[in-house]
Amino acid sequence: MSDGPPTMGVEEEFLLVNPRTGHASPCAEPVLARYRHHGPLPDGVRMHRELRLTQLEAASGVCTGADELRGQLTAARRVLAGAAAAEDCALLATGTPVGPGPAAPPPASTGRYAEIDATYGAVVADYEACGCHVHVGVPDPDTAVAVVNHLGRWLPTLLALSGNSPFDHGRDTGYDSWRMVLQSRFPGSGIAPHLRGHAEYRRAVETLVDCGALVDPDQTFWLARPSGRFPTVEFRVADTALTVDHAVLQALLSRALVQRALSDLAGGWEAAPLSPQVAAAAVWAAARHGLSGQLVDAAEETRRPAWTLVDELLAHVRAPLEESGDLAEVRKLVDAVRDGGTGAAQQRAVADDGTAAAVPWLTAATVPATHGTLLTG
């Protein structure tokens, strides 16, 4: 293990909507063409289009601490929001569309996205789900697979903390994370199988590609996986974070889980496999209930109160959080969610008179206040 905590980075996906109607707006390309005119960005921050022209992604650079990450995510959100406003769009940090959608978004016309459309058909035709992906540095590919084996028990708790997609084109779904329900329609979604080393991981992925379930080896739908592009473990479990603070919380908890896994592996402890059916039940319960009900502990194969599992997660990663100096920060951010609710709970409170009411509120919540005081849950 290295002398310091692993590096981390975050990719945030956002929706673009008409600010008056809440309808999804396919303006990703003009927004990307002009974002450089709306303020400086820290080195390493990158902007990309996503599957739909109604979506954008902002990716941080490689960060070592919470303050650096918070600064990069804040700058990216402000720049994208400014560029979107100049194109008469609003940038929303929500996992699924809030306002009613009159029609499916236009499909991709060429390249890999067009191949995804052709492969998955109606499953992906109206897919505008947005996630918050966290990358945490690891020493090598075999270690990445071993770390992923240690993460499965805790991924549903991360999902419950992140729930920020209660609506689907104008209707309340009753779920905290409808995005996860949409993602579960794809083959191989959920918690990754227990695998022994990177060679076995690659064989498993290549088999899915050969079976036609994946477009290419970069397209696994597992909620945590070795990255195909970077020397990292990639967490893909969280909904797009309502606020920068919510994204920082996901990053710090994800990094601490990797640190704890690395420590356990160094001590000779390998994770036990989870029951695939119980793991799927745990993901579903987290998507359904968020932090408001009973979740499933996939390792103990029993239901527990959501906040009990959050407290157990914090106890599990206490040592690495102390080592990195992040314990007080994480406690503060968790207490903010405990007091203010998840993004899904806050959206529901604002949209009590109809989902259209949530659009201006989400627009404001997405971008931290100009004077530097961050919105928190």
Provide structural commentary:
The structure is a single chain. The radius of gyration is 19 Å and the shape is globular. 44% of the residues lie in helices and 14% in strands. The protein contains 15 helices and eleven strands. With 377 residues, it is of the alpha+beta class.
Q: What are the salient characteristics of this protein?
A:
alpha+beta; disordered C terminus; two-stranded antiparallel ribbon; single chain; 7-stranded antiparallel β-sheet; 377 residues; globular; 15 helices
Would you summarize the structure shown here?
The chain has 377 residues and is α+β, with helices and mostly antiparallel strands. The chain has helices at residues 28-34, 66-86, 111-120, 122-125, 141-151, 155-162, 178-183, 198-210, 244-266, 276-289, 306-316, 318-324, 327-340, 343-350, 358-366; strands at residues 8-17, 46-49, 55-59, 90-92, 131-137, 167-168, 171-172, 224-226, 232-239, 294-297, 302-305. Strand 2 and strand 3 form a beta hairpin.
Counting helices, strands and paired strands, the structural category is alpha+beta
Radius of gyration from CA coordinates: 19 Å
What is the overall number of helices? 15
Beta strand %: 5-15%
Distance between the termini: 34 Å
Q: In terms of per-residue confidence, which ranges show pLDDT below 50 for 5 or more consecutive residues? A: 371-377
Number of strands: 11
Order of helices and strands: EHEEHEHHEHHEEHHEEHHEEHHHHH
Share in helix: 40-55%
Main beta-sheet annotation: 7 strands, antiparallel
